[in-house]
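Sample entry (114 residues):
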Amino acid sequence: MYRAFKVRRIIGVCLAAALPWQALADPPSDAGLGQVEAILTFCAKSDPKLAPRAHEGMEQLAGHAREAARKTPAYQQGFNTLTELLAKLTPAQVAAGCAVLAPPKANGKPGRES
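Predicted structure, serialized as tokens:
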């Protein structure tokens, strides 16, 4: 129970930290971009219904600079390290962590409509 909450909090914090990057003058670091894209890609693969939100998040992160960043060792290390970590999660942890990408419910909180 505690571990599932911790995983959800980690994924949520990473995604919440990534979204304001679009407003900054400087783009995110290549490693940070790789880590956030790893989360978004993982969640989109684990639940295809989340793919549009994940794609939207990736587009907001760094726009066209993403293509150049993907070729850097820092991006690849960040992406690969987090992808390996996420692959070790249980399905319940994945569902809880990726729920932050789900469209808001009628009450305005993240999660799927029932």
